[in-house]
User: Fold these one by one.
Assistant:
Number 1:
Amino acid sequence: MDHAFYEEKDGVAVITFNNPPVNGLGHGLRQAIVEGVDRANGSAAVRAIVLSGSERAFSAGADVTEFGTPKSSQAPTLRTVIEVLEQSAKPVVAAINGVCLGGGLELALGAHYRVAAAGAKVGLPEVKLGILPGAGGTQRLPRVLGLEKALNLIVSGQISKASAFAGSALFDKVVDTDPLAAAVEFAKGLGSDAPLKRIRDLNVPDADADALLLNARNAVKAASARFPAPAACVEAVAASTNQSFDDGLALERQLFTQLLTSPESLALRHVFAAERAATKIPGIAADIALRPIKLVGVIGAGTMGGGISMNYLNAGIPVILLEQKEEALQRGVATIRKNYENTMKKGRITAEQVEERMNLLSTSLSYDALNEVDLVIEAVFEDMGVKEVVFRELDRVVKPGAILASNTSTLDVDKIASFTKRPEDVIGLHFFSPANVMKLLEIVRGEKTANDVLATCIDMAKKIGKQPVVSGVCDGFIGNRMLYAYRDAADEVMLQGAAPSQVDRALESFGFAMGPYRVGDLAGLDIGWAIRKRKKEANPQGYEEVVADRLCEAGRFGQKTGAGWYRYVAGDRKPHVDPEVETLIETFRKEKGVTPRSFSDQEIVERCVYALANEGAKILEEGIALRASDIDIVYLNGYGFPLHRGGPMHYAQQAGLFNVVRAIRQFGATSSRPQAWQPAALLEQHAQSGEALK
Ligand SMILES: NC(=O)c1ccc[n+]([C@@H]2O[C@H](COP(=O)([O-])OP(=O)(O)OC[C@H]3O[C@@H](n4cnc5c(N)ncnc54)[C@H](O)[C@@H]3O)[C@@H](O)[C@H]2O)c1
């Protein structure tokens, strides 16, 4: 394949990149650019050179297919290509269209002149992958934009339209017309004595560098304590103001190399790939015909139904909300309106947008109103009997080909599908609370769910701004099933001697926003208690009492009653350690014959996080999850797993599966519930073979 096309016309050589879809700067393209520039310099007919991409992309930066392969660093490297441009004896003009990001922008900064389409998207987003621009971006951008603007762009990774930089030295021209034609005109207009403007020869214009840098250092410390890249970006950019260009470039390289192997960058790059992989389903063609979703029905206007409806209204898709009673309907609609008005007060939407969205919402007490919907999502009480009534009704009224979805968090989607004569159209859409905010959507594929139904739901999830992950049918699906294992591991540690506050603190230091006991107090302990009471009634002998039962018996339901695992002061959510809880736990331990021991924070974290990874591996070997990285996406987007750790499966992989299995066995050896610590067969296999979990 020709990685770039070369053409000479009227004294201008045009080098057009040809590495679809986004002109990633792979080895072939890098080599082709150097060859093109050399050829143009050797041609007597050429006076100037234009570099151009496609309408879609000048270049989106590094070629992701080369990541981790020797080709990514094979000469000519991007730095060499940029030097070749800078040193070209004939002026080089970059014609920027589409996206011009990361290495793509660094390449353009190596040209002597830049002509951009006003709508072209430019930025240095490397920080989002835990690295920094490593081909001179941290040294050249401040020289054309000034320190403050360049710092903001590099530290945030923000992508902006080229028009935002019109009039700055970043672009010589910003045009509303075809940037290639404009760049060729521009190149023709350059006289034979036109200067070869090298950004490296400029000084950074800002005067008050010290104050700006101090501010930036403090800001990144506060905002991204867990990630080293933003602080490294500041230091690299700082060098552009107080070191020579070459010294700055050397520092940039050194910091880049350090970041590239940092655990945080590995985690972020893993997540980047995992998010994309999660939407691809083996055996379903990417071009499968999707079912149109133009009208949505939602059943139940409670906590979930309201939030679910908002997702569609936000995307401009009309919703019919159905309830049993007018009063419930009115309450649900009022909550939706209140949510929108609160968003409006924060200045995120206008009053007009509130009305536009509310106008897309209609309500009904009759199933017959749903006969034309393309998708209906049930969010009624979590009770199989109630679900049965709803799905039989839906089967009766909804048009053929419509998708029938349940938001159940625990019930068997195959059983729900069996209430209809069209199980192939039934699927689980497990939104998380608050459903209009949380990014995760577990898509539960039933035994009979049709491929086009699944593909349509994945596509629809993206349209409403959700991150979809496909799960098979099992108790709790991917996320909640793992949560049970995590909570049991925490309870075991607590029963054996650690205080709830120590467990929370250990997991919060690891990076969870809240430990399990604080989460329990926030969510309310009565919900779990009600479920356990039902289990106990059904099987009194098999029921094993837990500490939380005693808390609930004492009326401690969490924050809403001012007491749970902690004590709360009215009007304040801060947890206070409560001696009453300590006494209650001590009594419980004595009754159960447990002699308490001390735990290190590290052991607490290992027990809880390895419990997640072990259950995750079981979910993977049963085929409930399609890939290990899907499990990470569930945990990162739905359960507050710390992003810089990359998810429980990635974390276990990094800790070494051999070490993880060994630790799990040791936990099992001293446990009163050794079966819970049985290592997943898949984990054992991979620990043996040394192969990564996929
Ligand atoms: N709350 C959560 O955090 C959460 C998270 C994920 C999934 N879910 C699941 O979502 C579903 C709804 O949960 P929720 O928290 O919104 O409950 P909720 O009690 O807040 O709301 C349920 C609503 O359904 C209505 N309803 C009940 N039976 C009905 C029927 N036959 N026809 C029409 N409307 C009916 C009720 O009037 C009520 O307004 C459950 O299956 C639950 O497991 C809940």
Note: The chain has 27 helices and 18 strands.
Number 2:
Amino acid sequence: MKLSKRFQAFTRLIQSPMAKEHYAYFQPIDRSFGTEVEVHGQRLIMAGSNDYLGLTHDPRVQEAAIQAIKRWGTGPGGSRFLSGNMTLHEELEARLAAFVGKKHVVVHTTGFLTNLGAISSLMQKDDVILFDKENHASIQEGCNNTGARIMYFEHNSRDSAERRLAQARESHPDSVCFLITEGVFSMSGDVANMPELIKIKRANPDLVFYLDDAHGLGVLGRGRGTAQHFGVAQDVDFIMGTFSKAMASTGGFIASDHEDALTYVKNNSKTLIFSAALAAANAATVLECLNILEAEPERVDRLWEITRKIRTGYREIGLEFGDNESPIIPIYVGDEFKALRISKELFKRGVFALPAIYPAVPKGKALIRTAYMSTHTDAQLDVVLTALGELAREFGIRVQDTQAAQAPVRDDNAGAMAAASS
Ligand SMILES: Cc1ncc(COP(=O)(O)O)c(C=O)c1O
């Protein structure tokens, strides 16, 4: 088969007039002002960023990055294993360990590479992995890479995870068993059911608990993450986090009290050994974010104030949305093209929010992923709510619209006949 044939179906799909009109992704942001961005010359309120604390534009953070560039240069010049390891990385690892409540940390270049490298180093092909069905693609890729038996459990369900564990014990009695969940799920915004899931760990101390807290860090537990929010950090064996969300940078880390396991990861993670180190500016950014978070935890409080305001607003509009405890608030639309069209209309009304469609979410379960930042002003939030209110009516996506569409059609003749016969 020729290489060009391989892509024909996708090329046809993406170049169809329908797709050309509605394709929503790879929007070229020409400039960012934090809570606002400029796209094709239009200024838009950003309502889909993971920069939850709005620190990417904090002057102290930017200055820390500039100073790091002056001291270490713009690029690392090699992997950490060879010529790219900086004292800055080691300082960051020590600070992060204390922040998330673990003894040791290993920093990687991105969150994706952290999951891929750490999971591939920690898990082996005769292991069993209990895997929440909604876990992120980077976790899936890491697990696939190990060749271990992956057993999926129903999203956030302790019962389902326990059933899987019992099956694993039966079929693989000698295997090491891992349980992997996210702290805050990236699409739904659901917070992990840690109080219940951790009971499984407490009843089975040899179960290895791995928590991907990409979206919990900086957000829950006054910024210290999901495990600390629920007071269970000591029960979680591995906490993975990213710098690409609330930490205003890129990069990722794995934290644990198991020193030997992390020393192994540090010396065996292919994505650490064979990939360039985290650039100095990115590492310094995270260190300054940690300084700010420790000094100004009220930034997180403002995020919650905003989240509450938005939830109330969505409820008043009648939107069907992910009613959870995080600043990721998906608006459920269902139909893929409707979601694409609503997103486009939001842009016209000055709001940047993108749809998630199949395969990112199940078929027919398209959503608009909205996410908020602690630096959004009330005026900006009002613009977003007004735009969503108008579009929800126009596109018939309010709960009352869906209920009306599902209600049985009243047969007035039948009523009249019944009255006549009585
Ligand atoms: C749950 C989760 N884990 C890992 C990652 C990967 O992180 P990064 O973007 O830093 O590579 C993401 C980001 O999309 C995520 O949402």
Note: DSSP finds 18 helices and 14 strands in the chain.
